[in-house]
């Protein structure tokens, strides 16, 4: 995936590099400020790490359809119940108030991530199983004309 870079903002995390295995799709372009995508990935990675105890492991996966790129960020941590999953993208929502307080944070990260992604015509969703981990999936529209 090639970013359409509109500015000269320096990379926050130079370690993030994205590529799809499939050479055919080398020209896949997402039009998004690079630092915005990084911000979203940092929020998701930070959470994945923060809310995992024994198995602190993060899996990233990318795929695409003819219209969109999908990025999945998976952890194997405490997971989120279905009821809480309906609210985690709300501003200031935190699942376990006491425990979350120990870990810092304001319940803002995911709402910011959602606003950013939706601002580019994409979406962010959550699949989670309490006690087993979570997968956050981002989709972003492909903007090349030759998709
Ligand atoms: P911050 O404002 O620093 O991001 P935060 O982590 O509390 O703080 P959000 O990122 O919006 O805020 O997350 C909201 C809540 O959703 C968290 O408090 C946590 O309870 C839950 N949560 C988010 N990501 C995960 C995850 N990967 N696994 C389990 N729970 C999560």
TrEMBL record:
Limits of the Histidine kinase domain: 1-144
Origin: domain of life: Bacteria
Localization per record: Membrane
Protein name in UniProt: Signal transduction histidine-protein kinase ArlS
Organism, scientific name: Periweissella fabalis
Residues of the full protein shown: 339 to 485 of 485
């Amino acid at each position: 995936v090639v970013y359409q870079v509109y500015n000269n903002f320096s990379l926050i995390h130079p370690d993030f590099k994205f590529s799809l295995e499939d050479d055919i799709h080398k020209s896949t372009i997402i039009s998004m400020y690079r630092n915005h995508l990084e911000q979203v990935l940092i929020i998701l990675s930070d959470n994945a790490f923060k809310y995992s105890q024994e198995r602190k492991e993060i899996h990233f996966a990318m795929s695409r359809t003819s219209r969109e790129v999908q990025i999945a960020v998976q952890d194997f941590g405490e997971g989120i119940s279905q009821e809480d999953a309906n609210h985690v993208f709300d501003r200031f929502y935190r699942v376990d108030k006491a425990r979350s307080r120990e870990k810092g944070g304001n319940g803002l990260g995911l709402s910011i991530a959602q606003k950013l992604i939706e601002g580019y015509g994409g979406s962010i969703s959550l699949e989670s199983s309490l006690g087993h981990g979570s997968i956050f999936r981002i989709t972003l529209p492909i903007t090349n004309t030759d998709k």
